Amino acid sequence: MSEIVYRKQGACEEKVTSIMEPAEKKLHIDFKALRDHCIEIRKEYNLYCNLFCEENRDILTKVAAAFFFDIAAIIHRDWKLQVCKIMDREEMNGKENITIDLINSRLQDNNLLNTEIEDTTAKLKCFGTKISTARNKRLAHFDRKAHFNGQPLGGTSERELLEFLSELQNYCNQVGELIGLGPLDFSCCAIQGDEQDLLKQLKLVVK
Description:
Elements: E1 2-9, E2 12-19, H1 22-51, H2 57-85, E3 91-92, E4 95-96, H3 100-109, H4 115-139, H5 144-149, H6 158-178, H7 194-205
Antiparallel strand pairs: 1-2, 3-4
Protein name: HEPN AbiU2-like domain-containing protein
Domain HEPN AbiU2-like: 31-196
Pfam families: HEPN_AbiU2 (PF18734)
């Protein structure tokens, strides 16, 4: 079946004619949605690091310590939720979720799933398992026992976090190359974000 596909490239749209079977079409659509979500995960991580790094501690504390503490906590909680979303089962209660499992299932349907992607998936799932207790007992639900125990949940080391981000990039590149969409480096932003502009203004005010 021949169809017209529109691929967004910046502010422009490229009109492309392609021949795509239904299973392949689903794979492309779902993967692009998952990769977009992975980009948001990385952007939120970069935002947190750019704003709440050690060198900014003094200026943020002087300006509005409680406010920035709350913002940091909100970003931290949301980041874990967004990561856990892509770790979910591909289907729950009869409804499909856009997850790593769904993409791998689509790859399997197209006879494309390979050991390299399976190995990367296992590494991602290992990290997901470690933070899932925080999502299940604190973030998405208000578990009574976990609340009154007061034990930290979902903790990981800095090394584990950095390895996860690297494997997330690897997974997206591996699948992207395999299905003809190519790799896409989303490890850093092309331009400085609003957080950098905010810090510049704060430093002008507080000297």
